[in-house]
Amino acid sequence: MATSLQSLFRAIAQARDEQELRQHVIVKVGEYFVAQRWGLFFFDKLPSLAPNLPSILKLALSVEHNPVLRYLVEQHAPVHEELLLPPGAWKIICPRSDHGHVMAGPIVGNGHLVGGVGFTRVRGTPAFNGRDLADLSALCLHLSTWLAKIQLQPTGFNSPNINRLTPREIQIAELVAQGLTSAEIGSALWITENSVKQALKRMFRKLEVSSRAELVGRLFSSTRLSSSKEQAV
User: Fold this and answer.
1) How many domains are there within the chain?
2) Are 113 and 72 in contact (CB under 8 A)?
3) How far is CA 140 from CA 39, 96, 107, in A?
4) Max Cα separation, the chain?
5) Do residues 58 and 41 lie in contact, with contact meaning Cβ atoms separated by under 8 Å?
6) What's the 3-state SS for 167-178?
7) Is the N or C terminus of the chain more exposed, i.e. has fewer CB atoms within 10 Å?
8) Which domain, by its residues, includes 98?
9) Helix (H) or strand (E) holding 136
10) Tens digit of pLDDT for each residue in 174-192?
11) pLDDT of 221 above 70
């Protein structure tokens, strides 16, 4: 069954960290756009333009040479090469056959461009179009929201207790630590409020606790415990 845009929204929201986002979610996004290559990048993790970098990488990271990157930096909006250039011009700028068509979208945080996603198709295949840009715009909104959520999450798991929980239960525990209600957690994870309550009951049994505050205290450091709210399931 073909991947839907809504399923990609959910996959982004449920990604636990950058590794999971890169290895699983962005792969699905690349397949959704029928791209042959795709990537997720953050500007603070890009290599510096050192003299020993390959010349093609220097050009790709140069806003003076790469109009797609320049548009992304200046406009903070999704773009593909045919939106900016006359037919055939991109081939001169980027001679790689596996970059015959390129599309990129922004990831923003605190009003700044902090990264992006890129997709390419081989030469001879259809170019990206307006529908692709609209879908990528929606996905970039969710990616930016995901990044903000990850940056705001408290840190300090207290293993090995965390290993008793499933990935979904860990997601719920993280939201409990932020003080969200069962209804709010359900909305954030695209599940019902009752599903959250049932999951919390299972988590209480696994960790041998009887309240949300005890749950947070068992899993996280004391700094996380002090900022959490004690609530009933």
Assistant:
1) 2
2) yes
3) 13, 26, 6
4) 66
5) no
6) HHHHHHHHHHHC
7) N
8) 5-152
9) helix 130-152
10) 888 888 899 989 888 889 9
11) no
